């Protein structure tokens, strides 16, 4: 009986230690000349989280720069391949599958993966190392409504081009081209109102209306951000301390390609904290099942 009780006690201790271990999480600390930023990484974007932690822990982000800075938009960095003296085998040549989660949007401080454009990257795969942190600006609700309508119109235009490129619609394409050459704006307007929608719906189904949630609207009205990026890039974390550092970096003088005139270097490290402490210290609320 004594041995059995000892085994039960030992098992309980192991389970307790295991639960303590799984309740910890990683906080990324970015060190810059303007101060430190601390960011949490989302469990819901596991591929991006694991990759980012590996790059930080391996020191690959150390001595990289913020190479693209646009005030009221974002600060971009982490291009490991541009480090001086980097060996060929240490270059980042892979991409990461998109992890676009509707619950994470481009509010100020959002940490997201840079990527190549849709023309060469229709799957929206992320860069293996480059990231950006949103600076952004505030918006009125009417601005957001207009932006959402614009996204639907843009999607409609893209799908319409695909339709007109199809061989079976060559006759319609030729008619549209003739109207364009003749600058027949009335004819083009009539085509858009009577034919375009039905054509797109026939080939691709009805294009869903795009709307911002109440939470998104509130954030963009009060905190600010870059709402036009939502749904297009993988947001995998958020700065929870040091938002003023983003302001400082975003305000620097830049030259060609939005590159700061003076290099802004960074180093990064990982702090391991319990999820409870992260919530208490930074106000980040984990999903209930994760606590």
Tell me what you see in this structure.
With 291 residues, the chain is α+β, with helices and mostly antiparallel strands. 39% of the residues lie in helices and 19% in strands. An eight-stranded antiparallel β-barrel has the order 1-2-9-6-8-4-3-10, surrounded by four helices. Strands 5-7 form a two-stranded antiparallel ribbon. The relative contact order is 0.22. The model is unreliable at 14-21 (pLDDT under 50).
Outline of this structure?
This protein is α+β, with helices and mostly antiparallel strands. It has helices spanning 2-22, 46-57, 141-164, 170-181, 185-204, 214-222, 243-250, 275-282; strands spanning 24-32, 35-41, 64-70, 74-77, 95-96, 110-113, 126-127, 131-134, 235-241, 265-274.
């Amino acid at each position: 009986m004594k041995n059995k009780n000892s085994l039960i006690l030992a098992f309980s201790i192991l389970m307790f230690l295991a639960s303590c271990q799984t309740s910890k999480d990683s906080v990324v600390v970015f060190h810059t000349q303007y101060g430190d930023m601390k960011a949490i990484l989302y469990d819901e974007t596991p591929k991006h989280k694991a990759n980012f932690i590996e790059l930080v822990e391996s020191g690959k982000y150390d001595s990289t720069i913020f190479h693209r800075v646009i005030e009221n938009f974002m600060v971009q960095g982490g291009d490991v391949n541009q480090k001086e003296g980097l060996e060929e085998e240490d270059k980042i040549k892979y991409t990461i599958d998109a992890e676009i989660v509707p619950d994470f949007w481009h509010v100020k401080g959002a940490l997201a993966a840079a990527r190549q454009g849709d023309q060469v990257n229709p799957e929206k795969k992320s860069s293996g190392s480059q990231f950006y942190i949103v600076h952004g600006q505030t918006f009125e609700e009417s601005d957001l409504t207009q932006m959402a309508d614009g996204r639907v119109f843009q999607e409609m235009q893209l799908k319409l081009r695909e339709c007109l490129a199809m061989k079976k619609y060559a006759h319609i394409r030729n008619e549209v081209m003739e109207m364009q050459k003749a600058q027949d704006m009335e004819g083009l307007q009539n085509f858009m109102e009577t034919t375009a929608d039905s054509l797109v719906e026939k080939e691709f189904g009805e294009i869903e209306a795009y709307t911002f949630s109440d939470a998104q609207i509130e954030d963009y009205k009060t905190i600010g951000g870059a709402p036009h990026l939502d749904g297009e890039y993988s947001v995998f974390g958020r700065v929870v301390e040091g938002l003023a550092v983003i302001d400082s970096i975003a305000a620097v003088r830049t030259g060609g390609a939005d590159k700061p005139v003076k290099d802004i270097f960074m180093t990064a490290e990982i702090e391991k904290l319990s999820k409870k402490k992260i919530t208490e210290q930074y106000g980040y609320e984990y999903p209930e099942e994760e606590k």
